[in-house]
Write a structure and sequence with these properties.
homodimer, 2 domains, 7-stranded mixed β-sheet, 10 helices, globular
Chain lengths: ~300, ~300
């Protein structure tokens, strides 16, 4: 099952340096989930050749413009492209009124159902769950109510033990993988545990942007396979990070290290950094398995080989 | 005095073919006036190296997303760049509530004064007037209330007659150019008309997008030096143009010919046209002095040498 993330924007509030505002696409088994949607996201989705109609959900972390101003344009383009599949938007409650007012002003009646869900800033709150993923909230600390998102793959089927595969009739395999016991023709029962072993634990991806350094997140991020964490500033500007409720690269890496995540991806870089290497170096010193997110590149969400604990 | 226009977006509602949504910049003596502001306009302003702080006014024709969705991002970026100069927005009344709701949701208190003026869809209504230009409304016909904009340069000073220049003391020249009579040392008066001739008539630029074919505009557009007129479709899709209240290229050219304008610039091309030559050819057949607007190119607004009447 495919499970990967493509950041489309790694810039902060002020667009500059060729970086775009926040947006990223999760591909879970060819269903697409958009996280944040800054101005121009539809253009970057097109450049990266994503099929708009595969996007079933948009998750908006908070209502600073660099995280949501692309929503109206995307909604409208989906409409013009003849979409009929419903679109789910998970966002702070105020976004509903903002969307409704603009649909009304432009006299638009969407051709497709738009379902709105107000997000809660509460660790562990289940925001969405379907055949591919479960999405829960992370309580971030920022100047506005801000939600992070934890994507967990649906548990894989149980793994058939090699030594028992020959015992199971072909047509029973899916049921056994789903956890059922095997009833033989003579009526005897083979318990599932003798036939299967636990599948690998579901992969997890966490999105934390925008947020101040927030150690409350650590238990909720424990062991996630890939963590995207904002790194707006270097430590030289730690005071500015504190004031604006953003994080430094070192703080992002400290969270990654203390939560024993698999890998760390940095983003939301301030426009003052033309070159993000100082941010990356600062983080790597604390947590080696760190990369600076590149816009348009796709990162697999996978079990890390190297453990960083 | 510089007077020129730079189209930044020549696409229609659906962004595609590398074309951007509507936006253009009028430069009148180094003061900038933005007409329409589709999503991503701030990025294209940056690409074209316009200084955001020189933009004093934004004129929005109507509230379809491809004409205004870039306003919030631009307002916000001006704020982050430390603007203190006031910004004037001329737009349909509903845009005020849309802006206010979003400023409120993001907890933003702009550092600079934002002045909002509700536009009226009424031919000749004066929307703005300053030292460089006077801007009046054109009543367009579209699915929403839509205003076109007629920019007229401020009248130039009167022209001193060559044969009289020697009569005028240097320190009196500006007053004479402004229309005053000359009082000689012996008390005799030389009337201004003997000293000066009429200056060339002020240059005029008209923006008509979006609109159905609308002959009511002709007297208001008569003799303008440069007309930007939408040409969403070719004549093959004249029925579609009628339904959607857009124009064909031939209709745009017919308006230009009947209004005896100097030159015609076509734009707002439907995404179905990868190549705009068929649109251009259709218009040129009716009105030869026609060009298809190129995004990012600057067109001088000047007296046409070739008259097309």
């Amino acid at each position: 099952m495919r499970f990967q993330v493509t950041p489309l924007g790694t810039g902060a509030a002020l667009p500059a340096r060729g970086r775009s505002p926040s947006a990223q696409v999760i591909n879970a088994n060819e269903d697409l989930y958009l996280i944040d949607c800054g101005e121009g996201t539809q253009e970057r989705l097109r450049m990266a050749a994503f099929n708009f109609q595969r996007i079933g959900h948009i998750f908006i972390s908070h209502l600073h413009g660099d995280h949501y101003l692309g929503v109206m344009g995307l909604i409208s383009t989906m409409h013009l492209l003849g979409r009929d599949r419903e679109l789910h938007i998970h966002a702070p409650q105020e976004l509903k009124a903002i969307i409704d007012l603009q649909l009304q002003a432009s006299g638009t009646w969407l051709r497709y159902p738009l379902r709105f869900y107000a997000t809660r800033v509460e660790n562990g709150a289940v925001l969405w769950s379907d055949a591919h993923v479960e999405v829960t909230a992370l309580a971030l600390k920022h100047r506005l109510p801000t939600t992070g998102f934890l994507f967990r793959q649906r548990p894989a089927p149980r793994t058939l033990r090699k030594e028992s595969v020959h015992l199971i009739p072909h047509f029973r395999r899916n049921a056994i993988k789903a956890g059922e016991d095997l009833v033989r023709e003579d009526g005897t029962i083979v318990p599932n545990a003798e036939l299967t072993s636990d599948p690998p634990p579901p992969l997890r991806y966490a999105y934390c942007s925008d947020t101040a350094y927030n150690t409350d997140l650590i238990p909720h991020l424990h062991g996630v396979d890939l963590l995207y964490h904002e790194a707006t500033f270097t430590e030289h500007l730690a005071a500015r990070a504190r004031e604006t409720l953003h994080s430094t690269a070192r703080q992002a890496a400290t969270i990654a290290r203390d939560a024993e995540v698999g890998q760390l991806l940095l983003g939301h870089f301030s426009s003052r950094y033309k070159d993000v290497r100082p941010l990356l170096e600062e983080a790597v010193a604390v947590f080696p398995a760190t990369r600076a997110a590149d816009e348009g590149c796709t990162y697999p969400i996978q079990r890390s080989i190297v453990q960083n604990s």
